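Quick question, first post here. What does this chain look like in 3D?
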Amino acid sequence: MKNIYLQFLDHQSDKSPLVLATVSRTHGSAPQKPGSSALFGKKGLICGTVGGGVVEGRVEKLAREALLSKKSGHFLFNLGNDISKTEEAICGGQISVLIDANLINHLSVFEKLRISIENRVPGVMITMVTGFKEETVLINRYWMSNTFKPSIAAAFLEKIEPVVINMLSEGNPSDYREMELTITDEEPFSLFFLEAVFPPEHLIIAGAGHIGKALAHLADILDFEVTVIDDRPEYANSENIPEASHIIARDIGETLKELEKNYNTYVVIVTRGHKDDAAALKPCIGSELAYIGMIGSKSKIAAMRSSFIEKGWATAKQWDAIHTPIGLDIKSRTVEEIAISIAAQLVLVRNSKK
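> Answer (accepted):
Ran it through. Tokens below.
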């Protein structure tokens, strides 16, 4: 899902008040993990989730109240109810949810986040919560990256900065941490929630035909940054593929030579022919790509494998790292099913990265 803070910025065009609910802590079995968030408006849930079902219903009720009161809160939900209470959650654990009723106060922080992500600079959203009581808390937010330090009390920053550096070096987009800090001789203590935010993984689709078009649509929903390359302008255009972030209408092989290819880049080769597939694949061999996938029949793949190895374009080990035939085996028949199988494999690789 697209980062929740960016989604908030997207919804600012109509100036409607919004409330952000974030799972801050869990204990035992819970429907969502810390960091899971949802935006609520006057009509209810807009996007995201804090667990669905009964929990989300109760959070939505609190969010509607917060829209009117403008009071933020930090709430604990006990999910260990008796199974006979069918209207209640029975996960058996506990979940804490932070409700921020004054998102507009953090607009400049969210804008810093957006600029960083657009420049592919990861960072950490720091949420400072000072509690008065459960129903009313003070929330301050800060954005921090390797290139930007926030204006926050030095006593806090010296303890937070090493954690932020560690989170960014770990590279885990699901990293969410809690710290309880206080300044000596001052009360009360404050809770700090640190949430890693990384640029979306970059998917390059070589080929703007039917499969490339369908895959671009799915990849956009799955929060990949999508680039589509094809030497046919009648296919490589925003009218044909509106979900693509970038469309390049020129020679596929030459373009792939020039594009940055790193461990956050995925390449799917679905061109219109054997020659174009080979031209697209050659610049990818030996790179640090997270994923290389190429469509094709078993006979075509076998012939290409022999050719690449004989010509010294790839070693047997390098070839075996290519996902070909491409996609998970779901007995695909239609264009849409093939695209789904590829998208599922991309998600599997992305979620399996260390």
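The first strand starts at residue 19 and ends at 27.
Residues 202-352 form a domain with the Rossmann fold fold (CATH 3.40.50.720).
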